[in-house]
Amino acid sequence: MTGTPRNSQARRSDATRTAILDAARERFAADGYERATIRAIARDARIDPSMVMRYYGSKEGLFAAAVAFDLRLPDLEQVPRDEVGRALVGHFLHMWEENEELTAVLRVGVTNQAGAERMQGMFRDQLLPVARQACPDPEQAPARAALCAAQLLGLALTRYVLRLPPARELSREELLAWLSPTVQRYLTAPSP
Predict the structure, then answer these.
(1) What share of the chain is helix, strand, coil (3-state, %, to 5)?
(2) Whole-angstrom Cα distance, residue 146 to residue 2?
(3) Which of 62, 65, 44 lies closest to 53 in space, CA to CA?
(4) Long-range contacts of range 112-119, CB-CB < 8 Å, 24 or more positions apart?
(5) Is the pLDDT of residue 2 over 60?
(6) 0.85 exceeded by pTM
(7) What angle do CA 167, 106, 91 make, to 5 degrees?
(8) Is 51 in contact with 64 (CB distance < 8 Å)?
């Protein structure tokens, strides 16, 4: 039983961190970086503001932790070359529909420099390596990844952030049918 108080304290600490991050994601998504405050986030998490500072040090530190997001992109080397566009589009649709954190990151990314820098980091660290797997010319991988990002983020903006009715009304299969060939071309077609 000597380890029980420590385990209990660790569980409370993990629960507090989770509550802070959940509240921060919602607050940053709703208010943007500039208007979101540590006090409001702490109130949403039902904790004292000093706890936010204890765990994350600053608003910037909290923001960095709140919008750190692993896209868990598929290994395109395991996908037939003529299906990489569909695999990538399907993966992003699943991510947006199953997890509102990516939508929150996008909302903050379009309204705030720090958010934009986070989105750039996700692009550089996660999407660019995937594009390199499929791209026929490694020198073109950054441009091709940027075109894929434009297509996928454009969909996310219209469907999940702005919630435009025509974009919302398209079924998953319709979205796959429309977007997959475009993303496929961006990734694998010869250079124009």
Answers:
(1) 80, 0, 20
(2) 54
(3) 62
(4) 112/32, 112/33, 112/34, 114/33, 114/60, 114/63, 114/64, 115/28, 115/33, 115/63, 115/67, 118/63, 118/64, 118/67, 118/68
(5) no
(6) no
(7) 65
(8) no
